[in-house]
Fold this protein.
Amino acid sequence: MASVASSAIQRGQVDLVDFVDWSSVECLNQSSTHSLANALKQGYRDDDGLHLASDADEQLLIYIPFMQVVKLHSVAIKGPEEEGPRTVKLFSNKEHMGFSNVNDYPPSDSVVLSSENLKGKPVILKYVKFQNVRSLTIFIEDNQGGNDISIVQKIALFGTTVDTTNMKDLKKIEEH
Amino acid sequence: MVLEATMICIDNSEWMRNGDYTPTRLQAQADAINLICGAKTQSNPENTVGVLTMAGKGVRVLVTPTSDLGKILACMHGLEVGGEVNMTSGIQVAQLALKHRQNKNQQQRIIVFAGSPVKYDNKVLAAIGKRLKKNSVALDIVNFGEADDAKPEKLEALLASVNNNDSSHLVHIPPGPSNLSDVLISTPIFTGDGDGGSGFATAATAAAGLSSFDFGVDPNIDPELALALRVSMEEERARQEAAAKKTTEDAPKQDKGGESSSSHDIMAEDLAVDDKRDNLPDDESALLKALAMSMDDSRSTGLAVRDADMSEASNDDQQLSLALEMSKQENLKDPSTDPEINAVLGDQSFVSSILSSLPGVDPNDPSVKELLASLQQSETQQKQDKDKDGNKGDK
């Protein structure tokens, strides 16, 4: 189902969707009909008919806490050509941010997504900044086409857990 | 039961001196706010409420979101009217206060009392609404006081831009005889999106005296008090009727000699009915008793005396049971009934019409029907005892 390039995972990295603490996941400015679960949850995110859309304007602020401390290696964001995100800022371990204070802190990493990324190619992050991640905040500042609404089809996070890295559990779909 | 942090924005501008809402617009707001705080904290004890004023010298936060009702009530004292509202600033400050709430799990809500004219245009209001929606803050707007043409439209625009899944509401309260708070109680601001505050709302309506119950006391909350009040009311009415008759009917007093026995029997009949009623629900028995007594219009003196006794006895809550007990004791001596009153009672249609006019009594209620049937049955028995009845002495 997935093409070679789009679902390649680095050797040693694990899809962190299993470690997400779903009870505290939050997304500001999401549309009520197109919510975060469509982009993040297993099953939903691979369904191209379901996506996350922004509501009042094109920015989105997504807060993802984890159940244990993880190291974040890379992130894959899939979206349509025009409404897919462009500038994405990631903040590690900042709780309950609002749109007013996203610009108060320097992001742990900032990425500009290319169209390749939007097809699913993961973006490698500054690994050193994400060694000890309890929660991740993703701020989608604008989208490719400058539209009023941003659309995200899938958000996948890759990394390892800090406590144990069970080599048997590593999913090796493809070598990078 | 939603966990919520609420900021209430009070309009304390010069427009609030007006008395078209009792006692003044400002005071009406204060009452409404007290009710809202109570409702919020009751629906979820972890809810917090804060208050700020929009006019006066400037936007001022009186109390940050807290679940302590006393603090909120205290800060509502000494509110002064003056200045002009700065609504945009007020909403922004409210948003900021909510942002720094202690419990980040609470949903954010702002309640704005829009009493003065709105001087902003739709675009500005839409921008504010958008920002609130973006930060997932719900907004309730209470439109009261000044009403100019553009105001409802502007507030609608604001609501439309902030509304997300019907979590925000706009209510219009025109000036009128009823209180601002009473009208508010029935709005979604109180009842929330589900049945969150409805329990409190019904209690609040009863407390506010807006209740549909006769004596401002909810029989569900306090049945004995409601019962006692109703009974004493009936008796007082009957006593007054009797007293009026007494003054106008001095001549027929001689007839009372013959009737006194029958009036005594009426009383005894009452007691007999009492006895039967003891098995019925309390309110129905009291109603029937009142009914029986109110039908004794023509028999004044003895009954008046008796009525006085009864009403004095039952005016006090605790003595009601004592009176009933005394009745029972008397009844044990004289288990007889008056055929006349029985005949009247036996007339089913008449009785049902009386009963249906009484509040809280359903003539189709099986226990009522049962009582009437039993009265009719005993009627024949009492006809035989009539002679015996006639020989009883006065009380």
